[in-house]
Design goal:
single chain, 628 residues, alpha+beta, Heat Shock Protein 90, Ribosomal Protein S5, domain 2, Four Helix Bundle (Hemerythrin (Met), subunit A), Ribosomal_Su5_D2-typ_SF, chaperone
Length: 628
């Protein structure tokens, strides 16, 4: 930006929409703005500390980071000032005129859908940062001077669709860093009251690693209200639960309570401190395609980056910090991922998080159940991606199943309740539990009281395809290969296993196979059907049918396998059709294709040829009417 005058620009569309909602909505708690602005100021100070490692001249004669609040009740002004890295005009436009975070649209849709007091929770939960200032201010000014620069810049907006940005007089700017000036709304005048500001800072921002001072009125001496001691360096015995919660809310950008807190210091070959949290609710970007982690890396309390991938992607919901005593301070952000020390830290952090989850699952099943409900679908990604920890993860996973009740089942629960003669852990994948529960493929298992895991997350089709096992028991899809139910007795003592198909049924099945031709790989009598006439299964050496659907939809499968049509030889309709013999060839052909289409519909697919299906159905109806 080279102009010497203030330039007016329109906000990015998403920002304008967000600001409109925030300005014209009623919030039950608007105090989140101060936490967000102080957090931004602390980040600016931390960024300067990092840059000053290579360029110490940036600090000049003011090496200690600080944040100051200036209250002016008479003029209804509140300023938040830091001596951090600062911003130039282009950085202001990028940081304050656009929203770079993915998932913003999803946030705003939820914000619009929320009513009343829910809005305040959402604002904090989604961490809208700087824009929260417009909940209390009718106008916001930002004056900034970048570290090491002789120029200053000003940004100004009333939050109504546009902003102005341009050069500012050096005398109007802080010596270094950024000053945010809030022209408070009339109903927010109490935000200048010293006791309220002090209470808000101590309750919401007392953990920030930068001292915070308060100037109660113009001309008054600054008074320290937060000492800047990093919370994670304090002994756990000296930290109150509410301090952990406040730190979590700041580092996570959420406004809920953490589900669990993990705070430890590792000593030995590597020394580092970890303060991590598992959120009490789902972050809005949990399923962001980037799947990036949200752990901040410090080296000896100097902020390095929040992009160090300190946990695997399937633990991306974990929020917090890692402070290393061993990593070099001058390491570049680009090279940090290749550092072997960081790899060791990542391994240690991951193991500790999984161990703590396992302990929680053993000690408080209800609390762990809430975590699993929020993040189970993400944790299961590790079963596919992290072979080294698969056994550990299999002990953590919970599943819905055909067992009565809504309580999720562990694999240990499943194995302990396996039936006599059962050799595998049976599962079925799909996208809807109700449809899975009504699937004909389950009938033979239900008749024997065999529990089947009902897996409805997309990732389930992938990790089960890797043929894992648990405690020596392999996983087996009920829609793939043979059911292998012959060794498991029926629960009904009077029921009998499926006998060998009568000769006429065998002949009918051979006719159906010949008629369907290349549509199927085989037609055979089923031992998994007890009520339905037909179903489809995948061949033993082919992909599970749900996995195949997902790969086809993603364009990653050129040719789908041909399914097997299984027919219930004891079903009255099949027995009656088999007895018709070889008469009426057109009718028998229609029946063969209709049985295949029926199986496809039961499997959640459409008939192969909708027009041909309609014509066959019409002919069958006409034949039925003619027999009356």
């Amino acid at each position: 930006m080279t102009t010497t005058e203030m330039e007016t620009r329109s906000f990015e569309a998403d920002v304008a929409r967000l600001l409109h909602m925030m300005v014209h909505s009623v919030y039950s708690d608007r105090d989140v703005f101060l936490r967000e602005l102080i957090s931004n100021a602390a980040d600016a100070c931390e960024k300067l500390r990092y840059e000053a490692i290579a360029r110490p001249e940036l600090l000049g004669d003011d090496p200690k980071p600080r944040i100051a609040l200036f209250a002016d009740a008479e003029n209804r002004l509140l300023s938040i000032e830091d001596n951090g890295i600062g911003m130039d005009g282009e950085e202001m436009t990028e940081a304050l005129g656009t929203i770079a975070r993915s998932g913003t649209r999803a946030f705003m849709e939820r914000l619009e859908a929320a009513k009343g007091g829910e809005n305040a929770e959402l604002v904090g939960q989604f961490g809208v940062g700087f824009y929260s200032a417009f909940m209390v201010a009718e106008k916001v000014e930002v004056i900034s001077r970048p570290a090491g620069s002789d120029e200053a810049w000003r940004w100004s907006s009333d939050g109504k669709g546009s902003y102005s940005v341009g050069p500012a007089a050096i005398g109007d700017a802080p010596p270094r860093g950024t000053r945010v000036v809030l022209h408070l709304m009339e109903d927010a005048a109490s935000c200048t009251e010293p006791h309220r500001l002090e209470r808000l800072v101590k309750s919401h921002s007392g953990h920030v690693p930068v001292p915070v001072t308060l100037v109660e009125k113009p001309g008054a001496e600054p008074r320290e209200i937060a000492d800047g001691t990093a919370l994670w360096v304090k002994p756990k015995s000296e930290i109150k639960p509410e301090e952990y919660t406040d730190f979590y809310r700041s580092v996570a950008g959420q406004y809920d309570e953490p589900a669990t807190t993990i705070h430890f210091r590792a000593e030995g070959r590597q020394e580092y401190t970890v303060l991590a949290f598992i959120p009490g609710s789902r972050p809005f970007d949990l399923f962001d395609p980037d799947r990036s982690g949200h752990m901040k890396l410090y080296v000896r309390r100097v902020f390095i980056t929040d992009d160090a991938e300190l946990t695997p992607r399937y633990l991306r919901f974990v929020r917090g910090i890692v402070d290393s005593a061993d990593l070099p301070l001058n390491i570049s952000r680009e090279m940090i991922q290749q550092n072997p020390l960081l790899a060791a830290i990542r391994k240690g952090v991951t193991s500790r998080v999984l161990n703590d989850l396992a302990k929680l699952a053993d000690s408080d099943a209800e609390a762990y159940g809430r975590i699993w409900e929020n993040f189970g679908a993400v944790i299961k990604e590790g079963l596919y991606e992290d072979f080294e920890r698969r056994e550990q993860l299999l002990k953590l996973v919970r599943f819905s199943s055909t067992t009565p009740g809504d309580k999720p089942r562990s694999l240990a629960d499943y194995v302990n309740s396996m039936k006599e003669g059962q050799k595998a852990i049976y599962f079925m994948t799909g996208d809807d539990r109700a449809r899975l529960e009504s699937s004909p493929q389950l009938e033979g298992f239900k008749a024997r009281g065999v529990e089947v895991l009902l897996l409805t997350d997309p990732i389930d089709a992938f990790w089960t395809a890797n043929a894992p096992e648990f405690e020596g028991k392999p996983f087996k899809s009920v829609t793939q290969g043979g059911a292998e139910l012959a060794d498991i007795p029926l629960t009904d003592a009077e029921a009998k296993d499926t006998p060998q198909a009568p000769a006429e049924v065998e002949g009918f099945l051979a006719f159906v196979k010949e008629t369907l031709g290349d549509d199927v790989s085989d037609v055979r009598a089923s031992d998994r059907l007890t009520e339905s006439a037909v179903c489809l299964v995948a061949p033993e050496d082919a992909l599970d049918r749900q996995f195949e659907r997902l790969l086809s939809a993603a364009g990653r499968l050129d040719t789908a396998s041909k399914p097997i049509l299984e027919v219930n030889p004891r079903h009255p309709r099949i027995a009656a059709l088999a007895k018709l013999g070889e008469g009426e060839p057109e009718f028998r052909s229609d029946v063969a294709h209709m049985l295949y289409d029926e199986a496809r519909v039961l499997d959640g697919d459409r008939p192969v040829d909708a027009k041909a299906f309609s014509q066959r159905l019409a002919r069958l109806i006409e034949r039925g009417l003619s027999l009356k």
